[in-house]
Fold this protein.
Amino acid sequence: MSRPKKTTVQIESMQKQILDTALCILQEQGPEAITSRAVAARLGVAHMSLYTYFENQAAILSALSQREMAKWRSQEQSFQKRAETEDIALVVKDLLSFYVTFASENPNLYRMAWVMPEAGLESLEENRQRTRNTVGNLAFLLKIGMEQSVFIKRDPFLAAAVVLAMVNTPSILFHNGRLVDPILRDRMIEETLTAGMLYLANPGDSAEGS
């Protein structure tokens, strides 16, 4: 007797479990540890059974990448929504802090995104496009601040790239092993956040407010 066909709900539920498990392995051990056998072992199923839900191991990694990057984009877009009603300088500072917090709370995802993308779940072109989108999202907010004279007027995309480079450097150095002291890393992050906001600030605006 053939097994009853799984419903769409059952399939989607199991796909979520597989991706959640793969994410746990990623966070704990890094991308190289994600294999169909490792995922199946954690779920307590035969590894071949995973291919009922995904075509192969590469499909699991691709689906995980798409899901996690969708979360990243959603978070970034939430700051654009905030910019409609909130102080733009605060929104930008909170966005930069979000990147810093993401690096701290998701070290392996961050390492793949910013330190060694060649070891990650995305293709190099996908990684480049995500980076362009990240810079572009910040540039969108900076342009609003420039139009409001909160930020000094300059090329928004270039300014976004400069500020992202500033605030990301301590985390990049830490995750590639060139900076080993987490306390020093955190102090550097505080300084670069302050320096980044000063780089953006319109001196005339601060003078008017004094």
Remarks:
- The chain is about 75% helix and 0% strand.
- The chain has two domains: 1-54, 66-209.
- The longest helix spans residues 57-82.
- The radius of gyration is 21 Å.
